[in-house]
Write a structure and sequence with these properties.
alpha/beta; about 280 residues; 7 helices; single chain; five-stranded mixed β-sheet; Nucleotidyltransferase, domain 5; about 30% helix
Length: about 280
């Protein structure tokens, strides 16, 4: 499949663009923007044939789309692996093999490679999985890629939002059958977890369970939620039966100056965009 890109993105102009290639189980997403140019943001989603090994489909699309090999100002490879661990940096082993051993103990079938990324002023580190063949192909084929896990920009953005908050906040993002939950008190991360969910009632159950376990106050603490429009309305309505301060996710108004396609992008790519701007 050939990726449709804006006419303004050419081999000559590519070094002005910040690009993000998001690897997810069903394919890849390709997005980019020029920070100084309004309306420059674009987002493309490319599904893969699930009957083909992921790395084979990635290679096929890479060689079919010359734009993926161009040199960019910044190129992010965003991994959406559900296998991750948040570890205090003081306890983190320096040995990569030991880090992979931690992943094998935590997950039944983790990916073959383990990557790490500092969080929260380097006080914690996120370990996450990536298939070794996929990682090797990206390092070999893309120009100066920077790997990141989808939770890293999310947590950074949510932490920014909590900086001036008067009360504790639970941040929730539902995408497909995955629900990410993070709790903050000012800039301090209290909890982060991911649930596999399919029904709104199931989502509400886990939200309220975490809320109670964290000792949040239903009168003053805040639940902030992002999901597809119909599901978001349903969850907001259901959650307001139990929690007073419930709201949808919001973004800086200047973000939308980059282009109408911003709203099409997944929340982690939007968070990455905000944190880089």
């Amino acid at each position: 499949m050939i990726i449709s890109i804006p006419d303004t993105l050419t081999a000559d102009s590519s070094e002005r663009y910040t690009m993000s290639i998001r690897l997810w189980s069903g394919g890849l997403s390709f997005s980019g923007y020029i920070s100084s140019t309004d309306g420059s943001f674009f987002y493309r989603e490319v599904p893969f044939d699930r009957g083909v090994p992921y790395v084979s489909a990635l290679k096929e699309h890479f060689f079919a789309n010359e734009c993926l090999s161009w040199r960019y100002k910044q190129l992010n490879i965003v991994c959406s692996s559900p296998h991750y661990l948040v570890v205090p940096s003081a306890l983190l082993p320096a040995d990569g093999e030991t880090q992979q051993a931690w992943m094998r103990k935590a997950f039944v079938q983790p990916e073959s490679a383990c990557l790490s990324e500092p969080l929260l002023d380097k006080r914690a580190t996120l370990l996450y999985g990536c298939e070794e063949a996929v990682q090797a192909f990206c390092l070999r084929s893309f120009q100066r890629p920077r790997f990141t896990h989808y939770l890293v920009p999310l947590l950074a953005y949510w932490r920014m939002q909590s900086r001036e908050a008067l009360y504790r906040c639970m941040q929730v993002w539902v995408a497909g059958d995955r629900m990410d939950v993070a709790c903050f008190e000012r800039e301090r991360l209290l909890l982060v977890n991911t649930f596999v969910v399919r029904q709104s009632e199931e989502m509400l159950y886990y939200l309220l369970y975490v809320w109670r376990q964290m000792g949040f106050n239903v009168q003053v603490d805040v639940l902030c939620l992002q999901a597809a429009p119909a599901l978001r309305m349903t969850l907001l309505e259901q959650a307001r039966r139990y929690i007073r301060n419930v709201q949808g996710a919001t973004f800086p108004s200047e973000l939308y100056l980059l282009g109408e396609e911003v709203v099409k992008a997944p929340l982690d790519l939007i968070a990455l965009l905000v944190c880089e701007s």
